[in-house]
Amino acid sequence: YGQTTRLYTEEDPLIILTSDTLKQTLHNSSTAWLVQFYSSWCGHCIQYSPTWKALAGDVRDWIQAIRIGVLDCAHEKNFDICKEFSIHFYPTFRYFKAHGTTFDVGKTYKGADRELQTVRQLMVNFLQNHTRQDRPAPCPPLEPSGTEDILSLMGWKSEHYTAVIIEDGDSYVGREVILDLMPFERVAVKRALTSEKRLLEKLGITVAPAAYLFHPNGTHSIMDVQKRLRFFFSSFLKLLPGVHRKPVTSVHQPALSANKSQGIGEMWKEFDRSKVYMVDLESGLHYLLRVELATHKTLEGEELKTFKDFVTVVAKLFPGRQSVVKLLETLLEWLVSLPLDKIPYDAILDLANNKMRISGLYLSQRVQWVGCQGSSTALRGYPCSLWTLFHVLTVQAASRPDALANTALEEDPLAVLQTMRRYIGTFFGCSECGRHFEAMAQESMSQVKSLEKAVLWLWRKHNQVNTRLAGSMSEDPMFPKTQWPTPDLCPACHEEQEGLHVWNEGMVLTFLKQHYGTANISPKYTS
Ligand code: FAD
Fold first, then answer.
1. Which of 84, 117, 174, 375 has the most other CB atoms within 10 Å of its CB?
2. What spacing in Å lies between the alpha carbon of 306 and ligand 1's midpoint?
3. ipTM over 0.90
């Protein structure tokens, strides 16, 4: 039962069940379950696994109500349990209600249509089939509200926003948005039907689906989204000021105490999420050169080569202020001219800190975050600036293909990505992050054949990391991890095909080139 036959891994956003865990997981579970019993040798199951993974990712925010699992009946260890559950065909989909008993073997879905959208809608129906008593506790009501119910919200102040999705009776958008917002606080979502004519008239709604928003301060209006699709509604609501993911309950949760928090009081710097800030990039470089690398006493061999390539890439591509670019170029000249195969890091620090300052070349003296500031000092900051830096560098490489001419990295579409990969693997303080990044690089980086594809590869992988980290402890509640760019930043990047959100990659590339391009880097707050 080797690596190669495993269709699902711990990295997937679903639960891998076995004979040891199936019954105890289902018994009196606080959530409902949808489990796929599959066989790792069945061709169908292999072909179907990407859909199942996509489904699990798509309904990731629903896990307090319904969870997705898999169990491999081809694994010897699971033979008996599959027999006990009478699994005769693969794949078999079974639904299990919340709070089930040990004897519950679930309800089989017999339909032939296994499209993602169909299965997702079945999950919604299944949740709705729970009684008021056995419904998973965090799951809000999915039934439509009546006209009076909604109109009674008018003019009242509240602790939270209330969004109402108005839709036809057979539409699933409202219920999906309700479930998408389940892990978020300070927002409630309801649905109402277009058959409620008086409601539509009162709210001035003429097309469906539509969304109407009641603000905490008592005002209300039609929700202004570019496309009336599930992803646009959900994303709009998740990004409302004050709305954030409920904190993960854990003793290790960094305290958001007022004195440590940058988010409260005068320290907070206003910024625009549609811009990139030069101070974040410079602070990132400052931290990287003066703190992260400085933990290495000497650089030699592969480490030295990685460092030289890194300095080459930034010296040639960093779209920074003249004094900073000159500093990087001087550092590069010095590194290239040194005949040594081993350099004490102190010498580099001395050069950056003292010698260069005398000639007026300097990096910012202190670290300050703007676009990368977090609601507590433990969140965002440096890793955010590093992502930003590498996105900027891939975009620069694509718009100035000759920039690396006459260097060792000339004409290599992978120059920036490989340098990033080696930097992250060798020096980045978070070794777990490095391990994950390396696994992603091994899987697909070699398929990147052009500078533009490199821009898109990094974007795609960053989103993969965002998916993995959503709801984790490194997520800043004020900056929830989402698929980026969000619809408010780039409406044209988002489309829907057969009920599944899809990216328009051509538009994404155009957007990335604009967003991370020189003209969009703001000098605000640089001293
Ligand atoms: P970040 O994810 O740091 O993003 C910074 C900014 O980039 C965002 O504010 C947004 O404007 C923009 N952005 C977001 N998504 C994209 C995208 N797809 N394409 C382009 N721009 C985008 N943390 C862990 O806990 N575990 C890990 O395994 C892990 N791996 C990491 C691997 C690497 C290579 C790096 C650099 C960081 C890693 N981190 C990991 C840290 C984590 O990814 C975040 O950087 C950190 O949690 C701070 O998050 P943030 O909210 O500032 O957003």
1. 174
2. 22
3. yes
The pair of structure tokens assigned to 101 is: 């008993």
In residues, how long is the chain?
527
Binding-site residues, ligand 1, Cβ < 6 A: 372, 380, 383-384, 386-388, 391, 424, 430, 432-433, 436-437, 459, 462-463, 465-466, 469, 472, 474, 476, 479, 484
pLDDT in tens, 18-63: 999 999 999 989 999 999 999 887 778 888 999 999 999 999 999 9
Backbone phi, then psi, for 151, in 5-degree steps? -65, -25
Domain at 117, CATH number: 3.40.30.10
Of the residues 10, 438, 465, 512, which should be mutated to test ligand 1's pocket, given the most ligand atoms within 8 Å of the CB? Answer: 465
The predicted model scores a pTM of: 0.74
User: Do 419 and 310 meet the contact criterion of CB atoms below 8 Å apart?
Assistant: yes
Distance from the alpha carbon of residue 377 to the mean position of ligand 1, in angstroms: 16
Shared domain for 214 and 283, answered yes or no, is no
Gyration radius of the chain's alpha carbons: 26
d(CA 16, CA 3): 14
The whole domain housing 87 covers 3-128
SS3 category, 317: helix
Distance CA(397)–CA(505), nearest Å, equals 19
Ligand 1 atom 31: residue of nearest CA: 433
Q: Name, in order, each residue with C-beta under 8 angstroms of 99's C-beta and a sequence gap of 6 or more.
A: 28, 29, 30, 134
Is 120 a domain residue? yes
Task: Give the H or E element holding residue 210.
Answer: strand 210-214
